[in-house]
Amino acid sequence: MKEFFGIGGYQRTPEGFLSWQHILFVSCFMVAMVALAIYFGRKFRDRSEEEKNKVLLLTAIILDTSEVFRIIMACITSEDPMRWLYELPLFLCGIPLILIPLAALSKGRVREASLDFVLIFGILGAVLGTYGAGQNYNAYPVLSFNNVISAVTHTISGFASLYIVISGMDSMKKKNIWISFCILFGFCAMAFTANSLLDYNYMFLVRGDGTPYDIFYNLVGGNPVLYPMTVILLFLLYIAAFYGVYHLVKRKELKCDDPEQN
């Protein structure tokens, strides 16, 4: 157990990013994520919004509890009493920690925008935080607390994203897209401020750290202005593209369902 939690440092050599152990490990989580999302999404699709919300609320409780436990363990295993400052939920995958509970407990446009943001970024966060997590799998053994809890939290967000669309909780109203932009800008502003004060790399706005963000970091030569602007621009473009593809698919579905179009 001491070795699993990394108390005193891990003694095992990390298997490495994109090793077969890494791919197999995260693939098991991804398969479970998709299977559970399909099961619960289809089961609750024709239920009331209140019943659908219960699954989302339970998801939020599990996700937030897991994250709090991760932060506590990071502080316990570290000799730095201020370690918690470097464990704040200011990465892209940390946004669902706030938005999933908000989506489950709020109403109106706030609820719609929260659901849509989780839908848009949940799957992306799940993929980047498992298959693309070079900063984790190059640093820790695959079967370690750091990687297990990371896989759990990222795939829970992915589950929420898939569950929202399969259960029919999504709205993706174009008039709410500006709220998604504001949410993203707000978190980026907090991450940028924290990075400046702590000399850290929240939201990967400073460097790629072995993740796919390194592609863009190298593309702009690590420019401290162009790189964070590029990352934020990519987020905004991703939101716009997601909305575009979503509504394109919806229009095709409506045409297929309309007998006058056949």
Helices and strands in order:
Blueprint: H1 2-5, H2 20-44, H3 49-77, H4 96-105, H5 108-128, H6 134-137, H7 145-166, H8 177-198, H9 214-219, H10 226-257
Strand-residue proportion? under 5%
User: What characteristic shape results from the CA principal axes?
Assistant: globular
Query: Main β-sheet: number of strands, strand sense, barrel status?
Result: none
Low-confidence stretches: none
Number of strands: 0
From N to C, what is the helix and strand string?
HHHHHHHHHH
By DSSP (H or I, 4+ residues per run), the number of helices equals 10
The structural class is mainly alpha
Assign a percent range to the helix content.
55-70%
pLDDT averaged residue by residue: 91
What radius of gyration results from the CA coordinates? 19 Å
Question: Could you walk me through the main structural features you see in this protein, from its secondary elements to its overall organization?
Answer:
The chain has about 260 residues and is mostly helical. Helix content is about 65%, strand content about 0%. It has ten helices and no strands. Helix 2 packs parallel to helix 7, helix 3 packs antiparallel against helix 7 and helix 8 runs antiparallel to helix 10. The N and C termini lie far apart (about 60 Å). The relative contact order is 0.13. The mean pLDDT is about 90.
